[in-house]
Amino acid sequence: MTTRLDRRALGAFGSAFALTVLAVFGVAASAAEAQRAAPPRKEVPPSRAALQYSFAPIVRRATPAVVNVYVRSTKRVVRSPIFRDPFFREFFGSQYDRPRQRVQNSLGSGVIVDPSGLIVTNSHVIRSSGKADIRVVLSDRREFKAEVVLEDKKTDIAILRIKGRKERFPIVKFADSDAAEVGDMVLAIGNPFGVGQTVTSGIVSALARTGLSRSSGQVFIQTDAAINPGNSGGALVDMNGHLVGINTVIFSKLGGSLGIGFAIPANLVRLYVNSALTGKKVQRPWLGARLETVNRQIASKLQLQRIAGALVLQINPKGPAKAAGLEAGDVIVSVDGRSVVDARAAHYRMATRGVGNQAELGVLRRGRRFDTSLTLEAAPGPSASDIRLLQGDHPLYGARVSNIRPALRDEFDLEVASGVVIIDIAASSAAAEHGFKRGDVLIQIGRNEATDVDVLERILSRRQRVWFVAIRRGSKVLRLEVAG
């Protein structure tokens, strides 16, 4: 009887023990699986010994792909009209009336992002009004000629290619700049003041900074890593040696670093690199609505809890915003799960998502939140009937103009949605001599408004003794008076 009870107890104990073991192993396995799935934690160094680290391995990995960029250009300078005066020429001769060439030198930095020798830098580093001689110097002191493959002044991005070399160059890989967090350690690598390649360290001070450029889709990563003149176009790298951004601008009253520098996020830079590699033009998504940043007044009127987001205005009935169910008065608060603090941040998120994809928008409408999918489409451009080449006896002879369409609004950053814009000007034409520029919006000719290209041509067909022309250039209205 006793033996029989012991066996039952032993059996029960064995079953319980087995279940316990299985449970423990199951919990351990689940914990291990969760640990593998979770991203690595970013922690403060736990001891004094852990603080004695070195950036040298990261620097060795990244610096071979960071180059110095030297630009030498010539600019044609026209002398003052006083030199054309017959009295002046009588005494000093006609040599002073001839145009002369002015040599301009600039320096900056760049980052090799493709083994074929493709280099990212800033547009303002290589920008010139004449023919430029561009040379890049690698960290090992080798020097090469380079040519401009792509330039976008709005985003201040330029892509260069090393000329005539078949070798493979070292590169810096792209990081996901959207994964960067405030407080992450970063290194800035460039050529400050032309002293040579220099590395400085700091942290990501802020993300999605806006208002530093006129472009509606431009945001920046802010860092306290020392950035100075000459660092423009250089690399901002993370602790993996991957490219987080391209250093582009500093906030400074004296021209030196005050610990407030800004970099173009790598995810935006990557779009232009892919464009240079594939030959496909970078297209910014068209929302089909105007966005305005939520300020204190708007937040109060709409009874919003946070002064942040992009208010939807002026819905285009044929645009993607209308198809997504957006209405005037809605507030976009997130794109693809990432919060947007203003209208520029919303445009940036959609731009990096790319044309042809879907963006998930978080929207507030009358205090209630909902999500909707937005199809990212390219902005419609002008048709053949929208464009005219102006000819005749008038100040705008030689200008190619177009009715304003969404693609042109984006290209020239126009504040107006309708009217006529100059899209090109022939060299040595009357329009060029009178100082008209691409992107000028024609407002008025005499007393007549230039509402579209047909109206403009009719106005210009009537000869005038004096032409009065009003244009909008950026946020300014300029007026020109020309004898007929």
Record field, number of beta strands: 27
Number of domains: 4
**Overall pLDDT score:** 83
CATH architecture term of the largest domain: Beta Barrel
**Envelope shape:** globular
Helix content range: 10-25%
- Largest sheet descriptor: 7 strands, antiparallel
| CATH homologous superfamily classification of the largest domain | Trypsin-like serine proteases
First-last Cα distance: 128 Å
Beta strand %: 25-35%
**Count of helical regions:** 12
CATH topology of the largest domain: Thrombin, subunit H
Please identify the structural class as seen in this structure.
alpha+beta
Rg measurement, Å: 30 Å
Q: What low-confidence regions span 5 or more consecutive residues with pLDDT below 50?
A: 1-14, 16-25
CATH class of the largest domain: Mainly Beta
